[in-house]
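Long-time lurker, first post. I've been practising inverse folding by hand and with some scripts of my own, and I keep getting stuck on stretches where the structure tokens seem ambiguous. Below is the full token string for one chain I'm working on. Before anyone asks, I'm not after the true native sequence, just a reasonable design that respects the backbone. If someone could post their per-position residues I'd love to compare against what I wrote down in my notebook.
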């Protein structure tokens, strides 16, 4: 009995421990939708610095400055034994002068909540055979807080769910990280303008299969540069939606603090073309 009693506190500590044992930057950064990955693309990585013996947690704030719009996101993610990720993010999309031109009012802001989960199925980002990447499946449930407005612009719903399958591998010998993600989605402008649209028939679910790719190079243990490409659906008759891409640099200021800067090109947004600008993100992870 004495052995059982004395061992119980240790077991409880192990269950909720935060060891911050991952290699620097191998936890990824945070996407604009709150899941672990790059700035635009979801990766198979699990958020937080915890290994398979511990929990991890990360929080982020991100701003994207475009010629006619501004996107701000913030959120938190929890990693459970480097196997399961649970995350929440809030997106605020400010239309500035465009809001007045569209009849919404100057500075009108679209708002969206995103709840997501991810499970690592196989492989390891760093260790194991080079041919076997870390593979994860994920789900992102998005809900616009401006239901009447997004329906007015042609969206069929103010809420939707994306499904992702990601494969990510860090080739340490070459200092290269590669990622490929397949996303099933019907989101317009990441969901900020609702889901589905008037380009599809009334009986169509509006879902499509999209691709997200990332390639990064580690200049040092603390500095990574790379680029991403993300295809997107084109559901709304009022405005064409283009693929999104970025060029980024992520710097681990400390083991637990990462700053990411990127050049971002999202193409046309709500009839306003040439939306290219900058992204700046701060992530704190344990």
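-- Answer (accepted) --
I ran through it position by position. Result:
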């Amino acid at each position: 009995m004495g052995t059982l009693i004395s061992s119980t506190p240790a077991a409880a500590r192990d269950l909720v421990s935060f060891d911050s044992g991952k290699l620097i930057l191998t936890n990824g950064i945070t996407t604009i939708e709150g899941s672990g990955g790059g700035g635009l693309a979801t990766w198979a990585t699990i958020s937080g610095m915890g290994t398979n013996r511990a929990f991890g947690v990360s929080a982020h704030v991100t701003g994207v400055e475009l010629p006619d719009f501004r996107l701000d996101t913030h959120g938190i993610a929890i990693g459970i034994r480097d196997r399961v990720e649970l995350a929440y993010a809030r997106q605020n999309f400010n239309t500035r002068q465009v809001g007045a031109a569209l009849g919404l009012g100057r500075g009108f802001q679209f708002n969206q909540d995103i709840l997501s989960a991810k499970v690592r199925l196989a492989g390891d980002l760093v260790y194991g055979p080079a041919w076997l990447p870390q593979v994860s499946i994920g789900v992102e449930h998005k809900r616009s807080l401006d239901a009447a407005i997004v329906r007015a612009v042609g969206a069929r719903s103010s809420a939707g769910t994306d499904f992702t399958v990601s494969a990510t591998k860090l080739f340490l010998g070459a200092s290269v990280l590669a990622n490929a993600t397949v996303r099933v989605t019907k989101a317009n402008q990441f969901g900020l303008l609702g889901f589905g649209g008037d380009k599809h028939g009334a009986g169509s679910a509006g879902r499509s299969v999209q691709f997200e790719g990332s390639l990064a190079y580690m200049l040092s243990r603390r500095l990574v540069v790379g680029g991403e490409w993300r295809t997107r659906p084109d559901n709304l008759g009022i405005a064409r939606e283009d693929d999104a891409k970025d060029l980024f640099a992520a710097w681990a200021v400390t083991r637990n603090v990462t700053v990411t800067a990127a050049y971002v090109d999202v193409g046309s947004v709500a009839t306003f073309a040439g939306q290219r600008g900058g992204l700046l993100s701060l992530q704190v992870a344990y």
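A couple of notes from the structure itself: Residues 2-15 form the longest helix (14 residues). The chain is about 10% helix and 45% strand. Happy to go over any region you disagree with.
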